[in-house]
Amino acid sequence: MSSPAPITTTTRDLATLPTAQLLPDIFRQAPFGFLEQAARQHGSFVRLMVGPKPVYLVSDADLFQHVLRDEVKNYRKSPFLYNAAKTMVGEGLLTSEGDFWLRQRRMIQPQFHRQRIAFFAKIMTDAMDEVMQEWARTDTPDQPVELGARMAHLTVEMVSRALFGTHTLPLDEIGKLGQEMVAAANYVALRGYMPFVPQSIPLPGHGRFQQAMRRLTQAVNTIIAAGENGDSEGDNLINMLMEVVDEETQQGMTPAQLFDEVMTVFSAGFETTATALTWLWVLLAQSPEVEEKLRAEVSAALGDRTPTFDDLPKLGYCRQIFQEAMRIYPPIPMLPRTAQADDVANGYHIPKGTILLMFYYGLHHNPAYWPQPEVFDPARFSPAAQADGRHRFAYLPFSAGPRQCIGMDFAMMEGVLALAMLVQRYRVSLVPGQDMTPNLSATLKPRKDIYIHMTPC
Ligand code: HEM
Q1: What is the pLDDT of residues 160-192, one digit of tens each?
Q2: Atom 18, ligand 1: residue with shortest CA distance
Q3: Ramachandran area for residue 332 (φ above 0: left; ψ -120 to 50: alpha; else beta)
Q4: Is the pTM higher than 0.90?
């Protein structure tokens, strides 16, 4: 960490920033629309008057770099959101801080190394193959299906089989855990975005949250016990996590830590990817030229063959499409950070305790880095465009710095394989006239369910 710039007479006060003021009622009805509009109207650093104390909306790449990398030790994850998350994932990687987090990250990181996750490609494609065979058996021709549920079905199977293996619980039971996870995560998000309601007061959905947590706890403990008894097959993430030891202390994880990390990886791992794939299809279904180019790539690289890890370099356009979809709709659109001490950033004095809402969505739509930001154009991620001197912190769907997503390579592989296999088997079209406004929950989901036709090809 470099030493922060000194506060001088030219350092500006945060109160001089453009201010967006909104009645809490309007914020409650359309929180995401309010934030999006605030960034569009007032720029990349905005003072928001929502609750009793201002918070600051950041869509500026220099500030992202400052907070997430250069001065990362001064900006911790804000308790108002992460304390809510702790009721679900305890002290796992996502929610812990300081030396404890560092030790866990050091131990877990190697399990997500690119070479290590290559092993999961086959598990993923087998899972997708089975899910799509099930759809083929049960779908009624011409009957629309709900897009978000379809993508969650795919990713829950992929992540849970990688995490839990395929033998410990019946497969249909593993699939149901995804629904429990969504129910729990949505309640946690609601609690996190309503920090002024005391923890002792239950919010709507509390009973369902408790039920989901009971079921998840039971299932995860069963799977961990199977690993301890040697009853589960060797190569799954839980077994890998059981074996890791910290190089410095030569100690592994306690059972409680293992439980928290399993819950963390499961919760962080499938809804994000499902959300990315959902928006990807919304965009693709409206871009026939992009879709044709994609089909040409997949057909040349694979024909009808199932993709493997070694095919990934041949699926460069699939990757660009997945990247561009996450630019337009970052699954995690915003995360709060709190200043631990006074600081100066971008010429502003940031007093200790200031809450910065790191607005990934605003960053990805900032015209300073993205000409015509609303246009879906996967060529923005072509090798030539990438080499063209864009700000390194202008595109951060997986965040950046030491707290960057540990599952980034895993998710990219999942997204590309899923896209390639879906276009091999289906043509997708949107049912016309639907509301496709994004909405803030655990991830940036569509406000209403989106229906599609999936026509086998
Ligand atoms: C498209 C899919 C994904 C997106 C967009 C995404 C995005 C993110 C973001 C923005 C963060 C930073 C969170 C923060 O600062 O609080 C994060 C952290 C994390 N993600 Fe992901 N993620 C994805 C998939 C995955 C997958 C597949 C896994 C695991 C299999 C995973 C595991 C984690 C974990 C454990 C952390 C916490 C890392 C730490 O703080 O050390 N994510 N992710």
Answers
A1: 888 877 666 676 777 788 888 888 988 888 888
A2: 405
A3: beta
A4: yes
